[in-house]
Specification:
mainly alpha; two-stranded antiparallel sheet; two-stranded antiparallel ribbon; transmembrane helix; Integral membrane protein; transmembrane
Length: 259
């Protein structure tokens, strides 16, 4: 325990560590369960077993609901009591659990459509990868605003922060969400993303690109780029169901999406 106290407790990172652990473990478990349920749906004669969709009063309850409730409860308890160890670490782990449950269905509440196993469902994997990476960076004590070293350096410090945030904003305008979000914590990521080519469907490209530059952007972020990113998404989240028809989430039972 001396190592744990020295590395996490004494540095004030214990809560962040448990939040990241809760997030990563929950995402792995949830994706494993949903993939097992989907496989059973493709085998009509398979035994039901313990794994299956959750219905309350005939309504299919998605696991993002439990995640939202858990995050709200944990936040209320933390703001009201701000408990010391070990309760603070327990709340942090539960927050990570709730965040994973919510982000694992990010595409569903983003599109307001049950796209969990559809092509658009890959947005959930993007959200989880960004959330997990951001949590790890914060655990490593990366700070989005750095540290001041006396009043004499205040103006240069503020100028550096302004440039940092502007480069992160450029990344977002160039359609690079992950680079922009992670770049808020790590300035070098934002700087590289801001200097490189924008995605062809981004706000930046629509206003500033034409001719050869637009063609370069389309080639850079073309079929190979998409296929490479999809392989990474599918590795973590599973391959989408081919030709799956996406239906609006109506709250009715039997949505057909393994949960």
């Amino acid at each position: 325990m001396n190592w744990y106290d020295r590395v996490f407790v004494d540095t004030g990172r214990a809560a962040a560590m448990w939040a990241v652990v809760g997030f990563l473990v929950t995402f792995g478990v949830v994706r494993g369960i949903t993939r097992r349920i989907r496989a059973k749906h493709h085998k009509p004669k398979a035994k039901r077993g313990l794994l299956g969709d959750i219905h309350i009063g005939g309504v299919h309850v998605h696991h993002q609901v439990w995640g939202i409730l858990l995050v709200l409860v944990v936040g209320a308890l933390e703001f009201r009591f701000s408990p010391d160890a070990p309760w603070g670490e327990i709340l942090a782990a539960l927050f990570g659990v709730g965040a994973a449950l919510v982000l694992d269905e990010f595409a569903l509440w983003f599109y307001l459509d049950d796209v969990y196993w559809a092509e658009n469902g890959r947005k959930s994997i993007d959200a989880v990868l960004i959330g997990g990476s951001l949590g790890v960076l914060l655990l490593l004590e990366a700070s989005p605003i750095g540290e001041t070293r006396g009043e004499s350096a205040m103006w240069s410090y503020l100028l550096g922060i302004a440039v940092h945030l502007v480069t992160a904003l450029f990344c977002l305008l160039k359609g690079k969400l992950a680079t922009g979000v992670l770049g808020v914590v790590v300035p070098l990521i934002a700087l590289v993303g801001a200097l490189r080519l924008a995605k062809p469907d981004s706000a930046w490209a629509r206003r500033r690109y034409a001719g050869r530059k637009l063609d370069r952007s389309r080639r850079r972020f073309g079929v190979r780029y998409t296929a490479r990113h999809n392989r990474l998404r599918d590795l973590f989240g599973g391959t989408p169901t081919p030709d799956l028809k996406e239906k609006p989430v109506s709250g009715n039972a039997g949505s057909g999406r393994p949960h």
